[in-house]
Amino acid sequence: MELFDRAVAADPNDALAIYHRGVARSKLGQQDQAMADFEAALAIRPDLDEAALELGIALVESGEIEKARPRLEQARGNPALAAQAEFFLAIGQLRTERYDEARAGFERARAANPDLSPAVSYYLGVIEYRAGHRTSAREHFTAASLQAPDTALGREANAFLAILDSQQGSGATVYAGVSVQYDSNVILAPTGDVAGQAITDEADGRTTISAGGSYQLYRSDRSRVAFAYDFYQDLHFDLTEFNVQNHRPSLLVTGDFGLLQGAFATQYDFYMLDNANWLHSVTAAPMLVWPQRDFGRLESYIRFQWRDYTQSRFDILSGYNTAGGIRQVIGIKPAGFLWGSLEVDAQDSDAVNGELYEYTGFQSELLLSWVLPWSVISELGYRFRYEGYDDASAAFLPVGAARRDHENRVTVAFRKNVSEMASLVAAWVGTWNESNKVDFEYDRNIVSLGVELRY
Question: Residue 133 belongs to what domain range?
Answer without folding.
Answer: 2-166
